[in-house]
Design goal:
By secondary structure, the protein is α+β, with helices and mostly antiparallel strands. It has eleven helices and 14 strands. It binds ligand MTE. The site of ligand MTE has 16 residues, from loops.
Length: 326
Amino acid sequence: MQFKYKALNDKEYAQATDEQLFHNRRRFLKLGTGALVSTLSLDALLAETNYDKVLPLDFKPFTQEENQKINQETLTLTSIEDTTSYNNFYEFGYGKSDPKKRGHLLKTKPWYISIEGEVEKPFTIELTDLLSQVNLVERIYRFRCVEAWSMVIPWIGFEFNELIALAKPTAKAKYVRLSTLYDPKQMPMQASSFQAIAFPYQEGLTMQEAKIPLTLLAVGMYKKELLAQNGAPIRLVVPWKYGYKNIKSINKIEFVQEQFMPTWEAENPKEYGFYGNVDPEVSHPRWSQAYERVIGQRGRKKTLYLNGYQKDVAHLYAGLDRSKLY
Ligand code: MTE
């Protein structure tokens, strides 16, 4: 693919994603935040995750222009080390470091995704085949977890709209339901006698939300394919919603007529809603959502309504009671 765009914020981007981060094992790199990232600990990370074997992707780089339109400010990227070692992926364990430790159990090639429900004709497609039919783009987005921490991640993915065009949903489709792979041999917590949540993990969006150009199906980060702990080989990215909506390792996409209960809402409907919209004014029953801890930086920052993406999505929720539509 040929793209004429100039990548966003070259200097900062290079600081966080420079190839030296992968290859120059002896140096200490200074990130924009002033934090020192030890390449020695990166060594350990790379050894465990086989990041060297992860393939670079061909994509259209995120531009200054797009960044201004979407984020309205230049964001400081979270380090690869933090993004790939501090994860929520309950299929591999409930601790933040478990997904990195156990991710090697997941086999992502080949990877089949079934498209079902209210579509002209259901079908199953292998990911490589799917990727040959869509446009990969880079998008740097804020990422806000319901646990009140945040990161900034340079995703590579394609707009959900492109999947919709291939799936051809019928007029009856009002919601989309996504499911994570269910295979206890590859995802050990699915076989555990203690399960904090029901598997397979499921999440969903309204059709209007799925069609918002910000909504991505991501297959990479930091210019390369996703690692298992981040939801390889394909995950949802909806930047104005809490992290739990961003379902990982998707192998089923169903178009449905009725709203349904996704995993976290079914688990605890008082704490986690279907919408999961980032909202500093609607507290979680056990903590405030007004501030967030920025991973890799000192201190906290104020959380923005819809994570700063109001301009693109606030119209979807106009006139609705935010305290009920959480
Ligand atoms: N998807 C699946 N299948 N299983 C999970 O446990 N955790 C969610 C979401 N997607 C989760 C999931 C939560 S709570 C968050 S915050 C994000 O993934 C974390 O994404 P990250 O680890 O890439 O930061």
